[in-house]
From TrEMBL:
It catalyses: riboflavin + ATP = FMN + ADP + H(+). This is Riboflavin kinase. The keyword Kinase applies. It comes from Xenopus tropicalis. Signal peptide: none annotated. GO terms for molecular function: ATP binding; metal ion binding; riboflavin kinase activity. Its cofactor is Zn(2+). GO terms for cellular component: mitochondrion.
Amino acid sequence: MKTLPYFCRGEVVKGFGRGSKELGIPTANFAEKIVDRLPADISTGIYYGWGQVGNGEVHKMVMSIGWNPFYKNTKKSMETHIIHDYMKDFYGEILSIVIAGYIRPEKSFDSLDALISAIYSDIEEAKKRLELPEYQALRDRFFCSTSDKIMNGH
């Protein structure tokens, strides 16, 4: 995908309410207007990169972009799981992410347990890939610069 890495920033909004409650894997969701502005060559699937809530620390993240076939969603979403334990929800905060790479296409699953297992596998894959020097450099490029000028884009 030519558009990667892709930087995105927006307010965290309420999603479908399944991440924490049903899956045990909390996610932060972007508003539809952010999802609708994704470049056309960012296909649906599972991605990895870096995320920051407000002015907090930068952490590894994994993200689902798409329709969540297991749930048969009618609305495309961007659901970010920041690989960090937060003590509380952060609805209304500004989430900044850089999508660094692609793990796999989205797909449906035969059971909730199979979906959860795939998500944990995606998290482990993201952690491993983000240890590579080229992805560490992306973190520095997007989050350690002194410029606040980068909005949604490259």
